[in-house]
């Protein structure tokens, strides 16, 4: 099977600019850091030197080194398909180096105190390169700093715990959420065409950094792209409409929006999983399904396949759900332990994965996998099945 990275390189980056908690695996949950600059964008997304695309990613073999190294993954929670996929990707990447020993996986079970205890336990076991999904946000920072100062190469990924790389941990690895907002909006404006239309942006938990920074990208593109001249964003300025990244909550929210607005021509979201609830709301209201954006999700792809024929206005685009970024986090941690320079970007512009307006990128529904499966992973179908078993 051709790797996701290779497929993306072949297609070229669809990104246009140089964090998941709970059942939907969207980043930046309630514990996420909200350290914003005056412009409303996390400083990490303002640092062009740290931002790049998938064409700049390198193979694990370049960073294995020769010294034996103990690695581990400390997850804030591991009870959803996104986390299971990411864990499998982590272990698959580690298996590429014969000198790597993987310590037992740590599942914080959405309990900050357990997550802290897990990291301390891994340090006591001698972990040398530690990848962390810091769902507890800044509450986890003192523990990350303690491990780092004890000599462990610590790389938090996707959810920013605050603090400073080089002082509190080795590096932070994630995806460019501002860029996601731009990508979705550019597609939406082109899909709506000259007539334009009414669009809503549905975010996640209240005040989360991911949705706020996506909103920055959305508003930027609406302002600067002439193709967006007749597209009206129904949100209050700078404010995502909260759905908690939960399908049931999104269904309620969208039902309310449908009552309030006679016409909604486009929905921009950052969760394919939660989108299933929004789609149900449209169908139950007897309203035609609109243009829709998300990150990739098997259930979302299946929903398009099931409803597209009866809803010709139901066009969709997704960006990769980026579980493969955990591989980059591992490479950064191992390289630092081995003393090998790693020039890969720390923040990745995520490419488009599916696009119903492009015959080469039509969504593919895999009925052999759970609805929440992440098909843009770098795992084979066999590895995905094993990850969810």
UniProtKB/TrEMBL annotation:
Residues 1-27 form the signal peptide. Residues 77-305 form the Periplasmic binding protein domain. PROSITE patterns: PROKAR_LIPOPROTEIN. It is found in: Cell envelope. Keywords: Signal. Transmembrane segments: none annotated. The keyword Cytoplasm does not apply. It comes from the Bacteria. Pfam families: Peripla_BP_4. Belongs to the bacterial solute-binding protein 2 family. This is Substrate-binding domain-containing protein. The lineage of its organism: Bacteria, Bacillati, Actinomycetota, Actinomycetes, Streptosporangiales.
């Amino acid at each position: 099977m051709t790797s996701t990275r290779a497929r993306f390189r072949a297609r070229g980056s669809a990104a246009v600019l140089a964090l998941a908690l709970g059942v939907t695996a969207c980043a930046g949950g309630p514990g996420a850091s909200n350290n914003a600059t005056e412009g409303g964008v996390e400083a990490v997304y303002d640092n062009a030197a740290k931002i790049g695309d998938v064409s700049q990613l390198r193979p694990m073999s370049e960073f294995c080194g020769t010294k034996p190294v103990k690695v581990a993954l400390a997850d804030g929670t591991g009870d959803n398909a996104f986390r299971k996929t990411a864990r499998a990707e982590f272990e698959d990447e580690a298996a590429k180096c014969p000198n790597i020993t993987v310590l037992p996986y740590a599942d914080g079970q959405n309990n900050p105190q357990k997550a802290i205890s897990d990291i301390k336990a891994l340090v006591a076991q001698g972990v040398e390169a530690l990848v962390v999904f810091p769902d507890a946000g800044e509450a986890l920072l003192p523990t990350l700093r303690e491990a780092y100062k004890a000599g462990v190469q610590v790389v938090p990924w996707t959810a920013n715990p605050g603090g400073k790389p080089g002082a509190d941990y080795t590096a932070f690895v994630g995806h460019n959420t501002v860029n996601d907002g731009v990508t979705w909006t550019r597609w939406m404006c082109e899909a709506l065409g000259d007539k334009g239309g009414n669009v809503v942006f549905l975010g996640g938990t209240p005040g989360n950094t991911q949705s706020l920074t996506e909103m920055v990208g959305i508003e930027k593109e609406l302002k600067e792209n002439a193709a967006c001249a007749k597209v009206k964003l129904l949100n209050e300025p700078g404010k995502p409409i909260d759905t908690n990244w939960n399908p049931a909550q999104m269904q309620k929210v969208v039902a309310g929006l449908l009552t309030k607005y006679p016409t909604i021509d486009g929905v921009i979201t950052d969760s394919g999983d939660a989108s299933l609830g929004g789609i149900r709301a449209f169908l139950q209201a007897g309203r035609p399904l609109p243009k829709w954006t998300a990150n990739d999700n098997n259930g979302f792809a299946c929903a398009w396949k099931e409803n597209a024929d009866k809803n010709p206005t139901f066009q969709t685009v997704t960006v990769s759900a980026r579980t493969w970024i955990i591989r980059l986090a591992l490479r950064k941690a191992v390289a630092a332990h081995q003393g090998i320079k790693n020039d890969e970007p720390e923040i990745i512009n995520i490419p488009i994965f599916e696009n119903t307006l492009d015959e080469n990128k039509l969504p593919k529904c895999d009925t052999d996998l759970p609805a929440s499966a992440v098909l843009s992973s770098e795992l084979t179908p066999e590895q995905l099945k094993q990850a969810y078993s």
